[in-house]
Amino acid sequence: MLDATAYPLVKTIHLLSIVFSLSLFAARWLGVLTHAGWAMQRHTRLASVAIDTVLLSAGVALWVLGGWHPWHSPWLGAKLLVLVVYVLLGTWALKRAHSRQGHLVFGLLALGVAAHMVGMALHHHPAGWLAAWAAAGAT
User: Fold this and answer.
1) Is the model's pLDDT at 1 over the cut of 70?
2) Torsion 85-86-88-93 (CA) sign
3) How far is Cα 8 from Cα 28, in angstroms, rounded to an integer?
4) To the nearest whole number, what is the mean pLDDT of the chain?
């Protein structure tokens, strides 16, 4: 059973998983763009799934430990919706696009969406990085 003392450890696992997940996605995406066979090999895909499973598990644990609910915390609910967009864009970036240009565009969009998700998490606001910019302009 998790208690509040586990929060720092779970958060560290979550943050490291984000770094590993995004790094592996970017490396695989670049591999797809350069036609590197390893990018879509089974062991590489399984590593991605394993990292993302740890990431999602740690995220759920943080919700529980933090007492957040995705439907009552607008930034968290929005982040979950944007996560679905990221996953869809990522699948097009890695395998579904029919051209190199398609892989390129969908990969850039996926990384842009991931950056927005990071901003949402850091600022606890659906606008992500724009929330900090808007707040600075309002003062």
Assistant:
1) no
2) positive
3) 30
4) 93
Helix locations, the chain, DSSP H: 7-33, 42-66, 74-91, 100-123, 129-138
How far from each other are the two terminal CA atoms of the chain, in whole angstroms? 44
- Residue corresponding to tokens 């990969």: 107
Rounded CA-CA distance 30/88 in Å is 17
CB 24 within 8 A of CB 51: yes
Residue 90 has pLDDT above 90, yes or no: yes
> Mean pLDDT over residues 116-126, rounded?
94
Q: Which residue type occupies 68?
A: W
Confidence of residue 139 (pLDDT cuts 50, 70, 90): low
Tokens 């450890």 correspond to what residue? Answer: 9
Answer whether 118's CB lies under 8 Å from 108's CB.
no
Q: What angle do CA 56, 57, 59 make, to 5 degrees?
A: 60
